[in-house]
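Page 47, continued from p. 46.
Same chain as before, 97 aa.
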Amino acid sequence: MKERLDFERDQDDVFATADKTGVVIGTHHGWTVAISREQAIDYATAYARNPAGAHANSGFFVENGKIILTHGSGKITLSAQEADALAALIGATYLDR
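Result:
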């Protein structure tokens, strides 16, 4: 089963989908980043333990009051509500939260 979130923004709407293989986060103008199921679980679990994050190399972290999600060369700025919704999507899809 595939789950989907959509975040409406002034400049470019963002979407996130989760299925049995992993999570895809992207914009409707073509930017996407794919995160494996295992890595997405790690990111969401770490975020649940410490929403401020540990470092800027991967996963969720806070920078200048904004939440950043990085994975590989992908980086996206999220509101607290968007980050919480994304972590909840991962939890609901893979961890029965």
